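Whiteboard transcription, Tuesday session. T.W. wrote the C-alpha cells on the left side:
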C-alpha cells in the first residue's frame, strides 16, 4: 500500500487533483519515485525574500526517493501552506490512516467501494439499499445503521459529499474514477466537525496529467452486469482537468434487483496567477434500481436469493419469500401481502454536486482558501409499504487560513477556519398500493426540516525536534434542528374523519471537540504515534419523530452522541520490501446513537435511541510484503470488541401492554463483527515476453456477529476466495498508448453468505421472556460470479 498526497504551489493542483505523490507520515510505506514541490514564484506584490525554514526551493524533493527517509524530511520539511492543508484531508499528522492507491484495484472489476475499501484495516462494509449503496463503517461506526452512511464524513477531492444532516451515500461513487482513497480512522470532530465520530474518507480523482488523453473501458459478467466507462484528462498550460463518466447496469443476483446507473465526475483547476488557484468540481449520479425486501434469517436459509418470488400469498410464504402488506385502496382498510417484484419496489434517485474553490497565497508562508458546495439529493423511493419522495438541497461554505512559520524557533503549521452549512428539505411519504409498478396511494405524512451547522476550528502542528512533532486541535460547532412532521390519519372511522397529527421539533446542540497527538520517528525504520481525540454526532431531524414502537411520536429527548478515543500505534519499514503497521485503540462513548428495526407492521422501519455508555476497543494491523521479485503479499486485519456499559432497555408486550426492563450492560453491541481480514497474494511478471501478466488470490473473512441487543441471534460469518488474472501492455502506435485486460472469479467456492444484516429488535412475552422480532434484516451476498474487462488508452 502506498500513500498519495496532493502537493500545492503555483503549478500544482491542490487537495483533490493530487498532482504529486508523497508517502504518508502516519503509516510509513515504500516510497514512490522522487517527487518534487514547486514553490510559489515571487511577484511584484510578493517580495522574493523568504525565510529558508518555511519555503521549499524551486525543485526541492518533498521526500527522498528512499524507503527510509530522514526524520526531518519525513515530517514537515519542504511543504508549502497549501500542501500542509491538503494533507489534513489525506494524512493528518499523528492520525491513524491508510491510503488505498489505484494500483490495488486498477486491474480488477471494482464495481463499488466495497470492492476496494476492504484493503484498509478498520473498515467494514455491508450491502445497502441499492447496487452501489454500501454501508461503510470505520471501527464499527456505521455498522448499526440501516441504510446509507453515518458517523463518518466523506470528501471527494476535498469537497464534502456528506450533507449537513450527516447522511452520505456511496451510490455516486464509481471506483474507476479515483487515483486513491484516504481512510482516516478514529474520532475526528476537531478537524472535520459534526458526525466524524468514526473518522473520514477522502476520494481523490485521477489527475488529468496522469490520464493525458482518453481511456475507454468496458467490463461485464454474471447476472447481466455491464459497465461502459470513459476517462479523459489533460494538463494544458495553467489548466488541468479530469473527466470520468460511466454507465453501469445489471440484472442482479437477487430477485427484483436489476439496476441502471450513470455517473459523471469532473475536476478542473486553473492557476490564474502565481498566487491564485481556482478549482471546480461537478458530480452527478442517476440511479434507477429495483429493490428486494430484506429477509429474516430463517427466510435467508430457505431461499437466500429470493427466487420464484413473483407472486405473493401462501405460495410465496412456502417458498420463503418476503412480503410486505399493502393497503388495498392505497390508504386504509384491508391489506394484501405482496412480494417486492409484485409491488415494484425500488429507487429512482438523482444526486448532483457542484463545488468551487479559490486559493490565494498571501506570501510563501500563508494560504487562504474559500470553498462553496451545492449538493442536491432528489429521491423517489418506494422501498416498502410506503414511498418517500423529496428533494434535499444543501449548501456548504468554508473559509480557512494555513500558515507555515516558526514559533520560538520551532517549525510550525497553523490552521484556522470557519464554516457554515445548511439543508432545508421537504419530503412526502405515500402509501404503496397493490397492483405493481409501485402505484402510489394517499399521502401518509409530510416532513419539513432544516439542519444548520456553523462553527470554527483551529489546529497547530509544532515540530519539537527533528524526530518529534506535536499536534493540538480544537473545534466548536452549533447545530440547529428544526422540523415539522404531519401525519395524515383522516381515514374514515364511522362518520368522522380523524384530523392530521402534527409533531414539531426545535433543538439546538453545541459541541466542543479537542484533539492531541504526538508523532515520533525513532529512526529510519520505526515511527510511533499516540493520539487522544474526541468526536460528536447530533441526531437527524427524522430521528426526533419516531418512538420505540415504530409509531410516529415525540422522540426529541435524543442527545448528541460523544466519544473520546485513545490511539497508540507504530509503523515499521525496515526496507523497501516490507511495511507493517499496528494500532490499538480504546474509545469511550456517551449517549451513543443506536438505530434498530421496529416491530413488524409499524409505520416506520427503524427508530433511534441513546445508549448511555458503551466502550469500543480494538486492534488494526496492515502488512505489505514484497518477499521475492514479482511477488507481493498484503493483509488488513481488524479486531473489534464493543459492548454496552450502561443501558437499560424497555420492551412492551404487544398483547398485555406490560413493560419490562432489561439491563444490557456487558452485552455486545449488535452489528459488530469481532474479526475481519482481507489478505491477498499476487504475482506480477516484470520482464520477458510475458511482462505485464499478473495474478492474485484473495481471501475475505468476516466473523459472525450479534443482530440484537439481547444477544440472542447471530448473523453467520463467512470466508470468500477470489481469483484474478490480468495483463497490461504498452502499444507502439501513433494513436494508442496501452491495453489492459483482466478476468476475475469471485466467491470461487460458491459460498452462500450474508452480505448485510441490519439490527433487529427484541420482543417480550406476557411472562417477561425475551424473543426476537420478525423484521426482515438480511441481504444475501453474490454467489459465484465471473467477470472480465478491458481498457484501451488513447494518446
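and on the right, the sequence the group agreed on:
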Amino acid at each position: 500500500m502506498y500513500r498519495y498526497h496532493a502537493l500545492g504551489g503555483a503549478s500544482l493542483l491542490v487537495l483533490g487533483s493530487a498532482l504529486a505523490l508523497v508517502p504518508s507520515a502516519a503509516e510509513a510505506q515504500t516510497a514512490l519515485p522522487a517527487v518534487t514541490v514547486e514553490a510559489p514564484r515571487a511577484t511584484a506584490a510578493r517580495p522574493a525574500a523568504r525565510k529558508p525554514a518555511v519555503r521549499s526551493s524551486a525543485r526541492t524533493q518533498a521526500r527522498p526517493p528512499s524507503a527510509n527517509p530522514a526524520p526531518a524530511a519525513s515530517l514537515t520539511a519542504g511543504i508549502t501552506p497549501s500542501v500542509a492543508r491538503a494533507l489534513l484531508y489525506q494524512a493528518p499528522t499523528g492520525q491513524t490512516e491508510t491510503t488505498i492507491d489505484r494500483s490495488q484495484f486498477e486491474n480488477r472489476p471494482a464495481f463499488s467501494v466495497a470492492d476496494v475499501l476492504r484493503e484498509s484495516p478498520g473498515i467494514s462494509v455491508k450491502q445497502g439499499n441499492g447496487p452501489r449503496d454500501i454501508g461503510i463503517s470505520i471501527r464499527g461506526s456505521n455498522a448499526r445503521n440501516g441504510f446509507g452512511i453515518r458517523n463518518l464524513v466523506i470528501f471527494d477531492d476535498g469537497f464534502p459529499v456528506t450533507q449537513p444532516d450527516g447522511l452520505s451515500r456511496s451510490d455516486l461513487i464509481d471506483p474507476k474514477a479515483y487515483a486513491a482513497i484516504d481512510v482516516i480512522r478514529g474520532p475526528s470532530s476537531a478537524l472535520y466537525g459534526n458526525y466524524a465520530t468514526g473518522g473520514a474518507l477522502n476520494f481523490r480523482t485521477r489527475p488529468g496529467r496522469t490520464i493525458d488523453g482518453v481511456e475507454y473501458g468496458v467490463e461485464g459478467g454474471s447476472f447481466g452486469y455491464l459497465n461502459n466507462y470513459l476517462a479523459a484528462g489533460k494538463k494544458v498550460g495553467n489548466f488541468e482537468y479530469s473527466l470520468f463518466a460511466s454507465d453501469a447496469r445489471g440484472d442482479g443476483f437477487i430477485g427484483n434487483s436489476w439496476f441502471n446507473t450513470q455517473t459523471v465526475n469532473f475536476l478542473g483547476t486553473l492557476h490564474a496567477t502565481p498566487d491564485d488557484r481556482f478549482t471546480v468540481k461537478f458530480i452527478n449520479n442517476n440511479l434507477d434500481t429495483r429493490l428486494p425486501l430484506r429477509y429474516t434469517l430463517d427466510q435467508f436459509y430457505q431461499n437466500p436469493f429470493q427466487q420464484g418470488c413473483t407472486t405473493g400469498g401462501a405460495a410465496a410464504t412456502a417458498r420463503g419469500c418476503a412480503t410486505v402488506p399493502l393497503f388495498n385502496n392505497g390508504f386504509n382498510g384491508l391489506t394484501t401481502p405482496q412480494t417486492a417484484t409484485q409491488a415494484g419496489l425500488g429507487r429512482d434517485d438523482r444526486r448532483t454536486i457542484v463545488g468551487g474553490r479559490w486559493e490565494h497565497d498571501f506570501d510563501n508562508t500563508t494560504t487562504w482558501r474559500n470553498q462553496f458546495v451545492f449538493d442536491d439529493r432528489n429521491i423517489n423511493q418506494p422501498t416498502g409499504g410506503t414511498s418517500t419522495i423529496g428533494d434535499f438541497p444543501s449548501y456548504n461554505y468554508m473559509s480557512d487560513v494555513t500558515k507555515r512559520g516558526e514559533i520560538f524557533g520551532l517549525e510550525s503549521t497553523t490552521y484556522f477556519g470557519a464554516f457554515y452549512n445548511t439543508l432545508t428539505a421537504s419530503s412526502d411519504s405515500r402509501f404503496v398500493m397493490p397492483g405493481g409498478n409501485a402505484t402510489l396511494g394517499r399521502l401518509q405524512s409530510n416532513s419539513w426540516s432544516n439542519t444548520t451547522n456553523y462553527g470554527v476550528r483551529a489546529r497547530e502542528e509544532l515540530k519539537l525536534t527533528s524526530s518529534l512533532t506535536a499536534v493540538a486541535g480544537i473545534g466548536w460547532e452549533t447545530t440547529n434542528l428544526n422540523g415539522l412532521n404531519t401525519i395524515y390519519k383522516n381515514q374514515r372511522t364511522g362518520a368522522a374523519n380523524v384530523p392530521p397529527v402534527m409533531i414539531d421539533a426545535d433543538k439546538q446542540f453545541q459541541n466542543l471537540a479537542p484533539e492531541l497527538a504526538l508523532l515520533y520517528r525513532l529512526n529510519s525504520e520505526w515511527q510511533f504515534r499516540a493520539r487522544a481525540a474526541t468526536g460528536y454526532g447530533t441526531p437527524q431531524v427524522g430521528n426526533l419523530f419516531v418512538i420505540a414502537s415504530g409509531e410516529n411520536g415525540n422522540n426529541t429527548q435524543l442527545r448528541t452522541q460523544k466519544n473520546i478515543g485513545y490511539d497508540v500505534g507504530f509503523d515499521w519499514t525496515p526496507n523497501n520490501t516490507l511495511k507493517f503497521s499496528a494500532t490499538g485503540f480504546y474509545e469511550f462513548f456517551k449517549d451513543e446513537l443506536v438505530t434498530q428495526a421496529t416491530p413488524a407492521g409499524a409505520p416506520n422501519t427503524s427508530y433511534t435511541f441513546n445508549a448511555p455508555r458503551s466502550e469500543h476497543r480494538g486492534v488494526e494491523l496492515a502488512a505489505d510484503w514484497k518477499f521475492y521479485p514479482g511477488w507481493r503479499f498484503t493483509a488488513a486485519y481488524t479486531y473489534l470488541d464493543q459492548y454496552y456499559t450502561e443501558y437499560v432497555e424497555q420492551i412492551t408486550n404487544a398483547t398485555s401492554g406490560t413493560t419490562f426492563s432489561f439491563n444490557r450492560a456487558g452485552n455486545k453491541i449488535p452489528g459488530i463483527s469481532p474479526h475481519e481480514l482481507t489478505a491477498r497474494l499476487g504475482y506480477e511478471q516484470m520482464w520477458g515476453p510475458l511482462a505485464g501478466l499478473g495474478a492474485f488470490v484473495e481471501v475475505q473473512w468476516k466473523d459472525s456477529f450479534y443482530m440484537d441487543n439481547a444477544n440472542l441471534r447471530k448473523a453467520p460469518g463467512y470466508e470468500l476466495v477470489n481469483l484474478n488474472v490480468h495483463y497490461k501492455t504498452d502499444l507502439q502506435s501513433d494513436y494508442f498508448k496501452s491495453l489492459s485486460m483482466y478476468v476475475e472469479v469471485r466467491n470461487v467456492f460458491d459460498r452462500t453468505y450474508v452480505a448485510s444484516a441490519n439490527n433487529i429488535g427484541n420482543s417480550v412475552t406476557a411472562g417477561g421472556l425475551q424473543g426476537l422480532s420478525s423484521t426482515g434484516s438480511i441481504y444475501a451476498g453474490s454467489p459465484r460470479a465471473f467477470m472480465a474487462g478491458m481498457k484501451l488508452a488513447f494518446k
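Someone added at the bottom: The chain has eight helices and 43 strands.
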